[in-house]
Amino acid sequence: MTTQNRPEISKQSPYWISRHRFYELKHFCLQYYEWKNELQFITECHRHPLDGKEYSSNNIRHTDPVFECVVRREELTKNIDMIDKAAKACSDDIGKYVFKGVTEGVSFEYLFTSEDRIPCCKDYYYEAFRRFFWILSKLRK
Q1: Which end of the chain is more exposed for a tag (fewer CB within 10 A), N or C?
Q2: Which of 96, 68, 92 shows the shortest CA–CA distance to 83?
Q3: Distance between terminal CA atoms of the chain?
Q4: Nearest 5 degrees, angle CA 31-CA 37-CA 38?
């Protein structure tokens, strides 16, 4: 089930962001669980972190798997924390539902009919949803 959101809202809204920025952030959020899995892999050292990357110095090629692993781990942690922080900041009472909506791509209707039923109306949810993307846009600059 996909979320059918209008990609652009009125410019008079305090949470306005452009259509293309919204899509960028939406797809950024949908990678959340991929990043969590990769971070777990890196943490447990079950794979080679280099993936064939090399760097050169004085025309001598070197590889540094530890450095690549640390850089990738920091990048993943930063992205994950950004989404977590925006979800907490968007709403105290329904932040976990907004988080589920943006990271799993589920709609309000799904959240409203699921076992853990969302305790608010559609308008309140989508206001928090827009606030989430506005906050995330500010954090990602």
Answers
A1: C
A2: 96
A3: 30
A4: 85
pTM (two decimals)? 0.78
Closest alpha carbon to 91 in 80, 78, 102: 102
**Tokens found for residue 76:** 């993943």
**Residue 135 pLDDT > 80:** yes
How do residues 94-105 score in pLDDT, each as one tens digit?
Answer: 999 999 999 999
pLDDT at residue 6 above 80? no
| Cα(43)–Cα(77) distance, integer angstroms | 11
Query: One-letter amino acid identity for 109?
Result: E
Residue whose token pair is 């922080």: 85
Half-sphere exposure of 44 (CA within 13 A, CB side): 8
Q: In angstroms, how far is CA 96 from the centroid of its own chain? A: 13
Q: Where are the domains of the chain?
A: 25-139
Whether the per-residue pLDDT at 56 is higher than 60: the answer is: no
